[in-house]
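Hey L., structure's done. Input below.
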Amino acid sequence: MAIPRYIMLEKLRGQTPLETILAWKNHHPEYSLVPASYAGRLDPMAEGNLLVLLGSECKNQQKYIGLDKEYEVEVVLDLTTDTGDALGIPEYQATDTTSEQSGTRDDILRALHTLEGAHIVPYPAFSSRTVNGKPLFMYALEGTLGTIEMPTHTETMYRIQLLKTDILTRAQLQERIDVGLVDVPRSDELSKELGADFRQDIIRAGWRVLFAAIPERSFMMLRLRIACASGSYMRTLAGRIGSELGTTGFALSIKRTKIGTFKKFGPFWFWTKKY
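Output:
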């Protein structure tokens, strides 16, 4: 059997990359003993393209890790979470009005343009970046982030395109979040004990309390297409977009749509190859 060097799988929301590979192997038992590794992980609430290396190509993983990415992201304004996506403890940004407007279209386009290019930003508190041999998410769960200096890195956004603005009622937003959290996996592994299965019971309760407490209002949602360099976090970008607009924001959905190389030719950007 000829083994391809790589395949592109569709990771579902709520799956881990490893679960995506195992599900594929279950449907293709002829590959059950073939080594497989993914080149670029996706958060539990993110979905979309997952590049998987097979066989001896796994040894070349580093060659693929740095590939550019494209995402489609929905950013909801006036709300934030400690993770930057719906799988986090929420907080409401009170404003002087219950209007859903968080700036004009021109304001939004200016904010997005400001965030394009290379910027030095902190790593997300809930990430696997290690400090003193321990991942940041462990410090966050322990409440000891104040004992370390937060590491930074450079994120490069080649293009942030506004596809559409939508208005969600409070009820519509609550339904979207409830449906999304249903997909979060549970685990009995002792290694997940501190995280308590992504704290999902606490997070669900937090969203219920928040929606019961906030006034009846609508929320602006930005639908974006983002081309970026490897190592960029869409959930923290959502917060920076909110900040540029004088409020807060979180990523309601994240979908990776392309993996490859994104280059500029004159005034235009092009995907020149896949992987």
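Helices lie at 17-27, 61-65, 105-115, 136-142, 170-182, 196-213, 234-244. The first strand starts at residue 6 and ends at 11.

-- N.
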